[in-house]
Design brief:
Layout: E1 19-20, H1 23-28, H2 33-45, E2 48-52, H3 57-79, E3 96-101, E4 104-109, H4 118-121, H5 127-134, E5 139-148, E6 171-177, E7 188-190, H6 200-205, H7 218-224, E8 230-232, E9 239-242, E10 248-250, E11 259-267, H8 284-289, H9 292-298, H10 307-322, H11 329-350
Parallel strand pairs: 1-2
Antiparallel strand pairs: 2-9, 3-4, 4-5, 5-11, 6-9, 6-11, 7-8, 7-10
Helix pairs in contact: 2-5
The chain binds 2-oxoglutaric acid.
2-oxoglutaric acid (AKG) binds at residues 146, 148, 155, 160, 188, 213, 248-250.
Length: 351
C-alpha cells in the first residue's frame, strides 16, 4: 500500500500514526488518492485525522506573528474593562471579534493577510477529505481560534454539536496550530473511535448531557473516564480535521505562553449550525477580496436568495439584544430557560 505513515517505532500508539504530506504531494498541492481515502476513513471511523506538513512553515510564522498583536489587543481590552465578553461584543474597527471564558479566548480574526490564505480557509490537502465527508458544496460558518492561557481549567468532555441520530455527520472542524501545541501547553484531549457516532437516546435517558465546555460535568466525566482518550500533539505545519461530534476537551496550559490554534467550522449545505458568525470574519469588502476558491465557502452569507443569509441576520438581531449587558438580561434568562426546557423534554422522551 502506498500510505505514508508517521510511526516512531513498532510499539508506538497507532493513534500517533498520521498522514504525512510528501514532497511530491506538496508540489502538486494534492494528496495521493490513497491518502485521501485513508483520511476520509480515519475521520469517519476514528473521528479525526492529522495531516503532517499540510501548512507551509512560512505561513505558520506569518499567522503567528499576525495573531500576536490581535491577542495582545484583546487582552488589553479585557483588562481595561472595555470589553464585556460573557457575550461577544465587538469593536467595529478591530482586527478581530473575541470572547473569553475562564482563561480561554475565542478570537475570530478578520480574513485578511495570512488568515485569508487558501491554505487556511480551504486547505488543498484537507479539501478532498472534507468534500467527501460533507459533500462538495459544504460551507464555512466560522473562522475562530482557541487560545488557552495559564489558569484555564480542564474542560468537561463534550461534543461541539448535537448528537447526529441519523446516518450523516453534519460538520468538520479544522485546527491549524500556529505554534507547537504539545503535551506541555494544554493539548486537546479526544475520545477517538466512534464517540461522534454515539446516538442520543441512552445519554438523555441517563442524564448524560455532553455539552458543557467551560465547567465541570461530573456525570459525563465519570462515564468518559471508563473510555480510552488521547492527548493530541500538533506541530507547526500540521492540520487536524476532526468531527465536531467527537468527544473532546481542552486541558490546562501551565506555561506562561498562550497556546493558540485556529479553529474553522465547515458544514453540510443542508444543515444550518447556529453557533458562529462569518460576519465576524468578513464584511462585503473583505469577502469580495477573497480568492474565488475560498469566497464560495462564505457565499451563502452574502447572497440574499440563500436562506442562510436570512437565518444569520435573524440570529444576529436576537444576539444584539442579548449582548447588551443590562437590557439583554431578561432575554438571556429566557434563552437559558428555553435551553433547559429543551433538555428536559429530550430526557422525558428518552425515558
Ligand atoms: O482548546 C482546545 O484544546 C479545545 C477547546 C475546546 O474543545 C472547546 O472550547 O470546545
Amino acid at each position: 500500500m502506498g500510505y505514508v505513515w508517521h510511526i516512531m517505532d513498532k510499539r508506538a500508539d497507532p493513534l500517533d500514526a498520521h498522514i504525512v504530506v510528501s514532497e511530491q504531494e506538496r508540489k502538486n498541492r494534492a494528496l495521493l488518492a490513497e491518502n485521501v481515502h485513508l483520511g476520509v476513513m480515519l475521520l469517519h471511523a476514528k473521528g479525526y485525522v492529522v495531516l503532517k506538513g499540510a501548512v507551509p512553515d512560512s505561513l505558520v510564522s506569518e499567522l503567528r506573528s499576525s495573531f500576536k498583536p490581535i491577542y495582545e489587543d484583546n487582552v488589553r481590552r479585557l483588562q481595561s474593562g472595555l470589553h464585556y465578553t460573557e457575550f461577544i461584543g465587538e469593536g467595529e474597527d478591530s482586527a478581530s471579534v473575541f470572547w473569553e471564558r475562564k482563561s480561554r479566548f475565542r478570537i475570530s480574526p478578520k480574513l485578511k493577510g495570512p488568515f485569508a490564505s487558501p491554505y487556511v480557509l480551504r486547505n488543498p490537502f484537507a479539501e478532498p477529505i472534507i468534500a467527501e465527508t460533507l459533500g462538495s458544496n459544504y460551507y464555512c460558518k466560522f473562522v475562530s481560534s482557541d487560545t488557552c492561557v495559564k489558569g484555564a481549567i480542564k474542560q468537561a468532555p463534550h461534543r461541539d454539536t448535537d448528537f447526529y441520530d441519523e446516518d450523516n455527520v453534519r460538520g468538520s472542524w479544522v485546527n491549524i496550530p500556529i505554534m507547537h501545541c504539545g503535551l506541555h501547553n494544554g493539548p486537546t484531549e479526544v475520545w477517538p473511535g466512534g464517540s461522534h457516532l454515539w446516538r442520543s437516546d441512552k445519554f438523555f435517558k441517563f442524564g448524560l448531557h455532553p455539552f458543557i465546555q467551560d465547567d465541570v460535568n461530573p456525570t459525563v466525566e465519570t462515564f468518559a473516564s471508563h473510555i480510552p482518550s488521547k492527548l493530541i500533539e500538533l506541530q507547526p505545519g500540521d492540520l487536524l480535521i476532526r468531527d465536531p461530534g467527537m468527544w473532546h476537551r481542552g486541558t490546562p496550559n501551565p506555561t506562561d505562553e498562550p497556546r493558540t490554534m485556529l479553529t474553522i467550522g465547515y458544514f453540510r449545505s443542508d444543515y444550518y449550525f447556529q453557533y458562529g458568525d462569518p460576519l465576524h470574519n468578513l464584511d462585503e469588502k473583505l469577502y469580495k477580496a477573497l480568492d474565488p476558491s475560498t469566497q464560495q465557502l462564505f457565499a451563502p452569507f452574502f447572497d440574499k436568495t440563500d436562506s442562510r443569509y436570512w437565518k444569520l441576520r435573524q440570529t444576529r438581531s436576537i444576539r444584539s439584544i442579548a449582548d447588551q449587558r443590562y437590557l439583554g438580561y431578561p432575554l438571556r434568562i429566557a434563552l437559558r430557560v428555553a435551553d433547559r426546557v429543551k433538555a428536559r423534554i429530550r430526557t422525558y422522551w428518552a425515558t
